[in-house]
């Protein structure tokens, strides 16, 4: 009945470590991105999601849920916004991969963002240069704050919300 996703992830990480498929599991800080998984007893209702022990939580449902809900993962990003990822079993079989049809190669470049094998070129949007001054101010303001202080938290959130 409880959200046991974290315990399962730790168990899987240690199994992978002892069977030499991965490194020793790392402790992840509570700061930044957090998530919790509900593997059962979750229902998607008209304009929200109903969790066990919490009840109904209002949510913006972007598309219709067709099929049985398997797992819902709720995550919070650095800006403090919450998102729910819904894993659904729609009952359809996985389609086979087909090798027929036209294929296109894509290369990333410096002057152009992407160039395809049929000759199409996509320009580099150069987003950083437009916001560079504002980013510099926010980084400088954050660097002058003492780590762990309450004055640092809003500046850290503002920097993580940077476009």
What does this structure look like?
25% of the residues lie in helices and 27% in strands. With 163 residues, the protein is an alpha+beta fold. The strands form three sheets. Strands 1-5-6 form a three-stranded antiparallel β-sheet, with no helix packed on it. The chain has a three-stranded antiparallel β-sheet with strand order 2-3-4, with no helix packed on it. The longest helix has 17 residues.
How many strand units?
A: 9
Number of helices: 3
- State the end-to-end distance: 39 Å
Kindly name the structural category.
Answer: alpha+beta
What is the percentage of strand-forming residues?
25-35%
- Main sheet: strand order: 1-5-6
N to C succession of SSEs: HEEEEEEEEEHH
| Uncertain stretches | none
Major sheet details = 3 strands, antiparallel
Helix amount, in percent? 10-25%
User: Rg, please?
Assistant: 22 Å
Brief overview, please?
The protein is α+β, with helices and mostly antiparallel strands.
Write a concise keyword list for the protein shown above:
single chain, 163 residues, 3 helices
Helices and strands, with pairings:
Layout: H1 5-18, E1 34-38, E2 43-45, E3 48-51, E4 55-58, E5 68-76, E6 82-89, E7 106-108, E8 112-116, E9 121-123, H2 127-143, H3 152-160
Antiparallel strand pairs: 1-5, 2-3, 3-4, 5-6, 7-8, 8-9
Helix pairs in contact: 2-3
């Amino acid at each position: 009945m409880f959200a046991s996703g974290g315990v399962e992830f730790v168990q899987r990480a240690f199994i992978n470590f002892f069977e030499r498929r991965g490194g020793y599991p790392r402790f992840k800080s509570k700061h930044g991105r957090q998530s919790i998984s509900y593997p059962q007893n979750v229902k998607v209702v008209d304009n929200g999601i109903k969790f066990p022990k919490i009840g109904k939580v209002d949510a913006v449902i972007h598309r219709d849920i067709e099929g049985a809900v398997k797992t819902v993962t709720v995550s919070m990003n650095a800006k403090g916004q919450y998102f729910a990822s819904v894993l659904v079993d729609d009952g359809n079989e996985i389609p086979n991969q087909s090798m027929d049809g036209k294929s296109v190669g894509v290369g990333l470049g410096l002057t152009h963002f992407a160039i395809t094998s049929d000759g199409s070129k996509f320009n580099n949007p150069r987003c950083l240069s437009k916001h560079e001054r504002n980013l510099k101010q926010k980084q400088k303001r954050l660097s002058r704050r003492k780590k762990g202080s309450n004055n640092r938290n809003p500046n850290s959130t503002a920097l993580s919300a940077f476009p």
